[in-house]
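Form P-L/3: holo structure prediction, ligand inosinic acid.
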Amino acid sequence: MTVTINTLFDEDTIAARVDALAREIAETRPERLLVVAVLKGSFIFAADLVRAMHRVGLTPEMEFMHLSSYGAGTQGSEVRILRDVESDVNGRDIILVDDILESGRTLSFAKERLAKRGARSVRVAALLDKPENRKAAISADYVGFICPDKFVVGYGMDMGHAWRQLPFIGYVVPDGETSAGETRGE
Ligand code: IMP
Ligand code: MG
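OUTPUT (holo model):
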């Protein structure tokens, strides 16, 4: 089987956008800043974002929350915690980082949980915003890019566990559609 992946956002475009997001965050002068990366999809974005934060003079600490959602898109879908934040979040300014904000269920769950635990503020940084399928009342405070309604991979994001390692963000071209994209066998 052959999978074709077309580039949507290349490495330089992503890097410039991540730097801009770090500058935007720095302007809010966060206190006792804690970056919480939602695993797994955000791991590359979060790694780049905290280094960009360092370059603009911020000193974030990092935490991880591993969430998994079941039955996404269906009414009964729920979010399960596979690993929770260990640090005390009380009184802290938190940036909650995820790869994609789509239905919003995952991030609204995480945001509410951190707020309940006493965070001073919880702001959401989503690499990609897919606004068409929003189900929960949540928006991102910081958005890398608005994403077309396509299935995207790379830069941490997967399709069936594959393609997280790609340094760019691409979309999978459905079988049978021809294009001048990058073709990789699988
Ligand atoms: P939601 O906002 O709760 O619907 O969750 C969005 C999550 O679904 C993202 O964090 C991804 O893990 C996953 N997801 C949604 N769209 C895509 C995609 O196009 N590629 C890879 N993962 C996706
Ligand atoms: Mg995710």
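COMMENT: The pocket of inosinic acid (ligand 1) is lined by residues 41, 69, 72, 98-107, 151-152, 157 (CB under 6 Å).
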